[in-house]
Amino acid sequence: MYKKRWGFVIVTAQSMSRVRQVYISGIILFILGIVSCIGVVGMARLVWFSGSYAHAKFGVYEARRENKGLMMKIRFLNRFIAKETDKINQLVAFEDKIRLQYGMDRISNEVRRAGVGGRPSREDLMLTNLLDPVLMRAEAVRESLEVLIRKADLQDSTLTRVTYNVAKIHKKWSQRPSTWPTQGRITSYFGYRFHPIAGHTLFHDGLDIANKVWTPIYSTADGIVHFAGNKDYYGRMVAINHQASDCQTIYGHLHQTAVVAGQVVKRGDLIGYMGNTGRSTGPHLHYEVRISKKPVNPLSYILPTDAIID
Ligand SMILES: [Zn+2]
Fold this sequence. Notes:
- By secondary structure, the protein is α+β, with helices and mostly antiparallel strands.
- The protein has helices at 26-101, 109-116, 122-131, 133-174, and strands at residues 5-11, 19-25, 185-188, 191-194, 201-204, 207-210, 216-218, 223-231, 235-242, 247-257, 264-265, 270-274, 284-291, 294-296.
- Helix content is 44%, strand content 25%.
- The structure holds zinc ion.
- Residues 188, 204, 206, 208, 286 line the site of zinc ion.
């Protein structure tokens, strides 16, 4: 029986002339074929496995790198929140000081907390907790940022209110008589006194300060000139309205006025000169302070010279 043989022709390097033939039986060739096939499949599987392993490893690496980046961002945001919260706390302390100085009530911590709002709900936190630690931190940062924004908004509104109130108080102070209207000696106080011209006891509704004619007279507060001219027994007179403090000051017996009705004046502005006009026995200033149109003791509206007014 003829046995089929598969042959290889092997040409050796030493001699081109010598050609050797090697015969391998079919079964061996078949076995070799199977083995090589298994080898190729195995190799392919190995390559595939190592590829997917590398891919998985790369994916984990990528995720880690991403998480690391996120954590860095979260840390940065936390630092930012801490810094901004510090700034707001400083503003709160500043506002408390201003409120104390200007006699305004301090906003209690409870009211501030109520204005800012609460923390996230327990369920929300548990849910995020289950998801991912990075997500949990991100959620905490988001909550902190929201609280920070609400704090800033609250601070903005309370400081706006304080600024408005301080401006109002300053205006009131600037329009409240508080200085001497002129230099000289007091010749008559506020209250009942024997009137030298009338010849009997009369209520003196002002303060008389005597000095030479032409001694300058100054406004004792900011205001608007209500009247400047001749007025009965006041002689030449200036009346200034200080509306913010519901008050009027009157300067009588002037030699000459230095302002006109409707003129805006500041505390310390020259408004006229001392004289002896009207019902007067010698050069002096008759100075009146009226609160809600009622004369009050002007000495109660003259602060010590070293007092800080505004
Ligand atoms: Zn008088």
